[in-house]
Amino acid sequence: MRDGPGVRTTQSRNALSLVLSFLLCSPVLALASLALCAESAPARELYQENCAPCHGSQGRGDGPGVGAFPVKPANHTDPLVMRAHTDEYLFKAITEGGTGVGRSPFMPAWGELLTEQQIATLVAYIRSLSASVQQ
Q: What is the number of domains present in the chain?
């Protein structure tokens, strides 16, 4: 059997449609795909600038501002803590702050300052912190 010029185009189109459908039907998987860039310098810088003052540079909940809070910030390196929360929960916590997820009012809302893409990148980066501890 010989493939004609239209066969490869149809196969390419079908493959592209399958990938797009998969990503569009699963926002969590689309978010998870950002994990590929979680270890990037921009993701690390975003975390260091916005999260590290409270959560610490390594994500252990031991940032320099921790002494001022009555509640210790979350330890992003603890797999048990991180498994308890979905990506959607983390996204909402970053966007709306602690009160948005029924937690500490000392966790600020970043939704007005960061884009959705930046917040998704932070979620992936935070996930990578606990994943690196598990390995």
A: 1
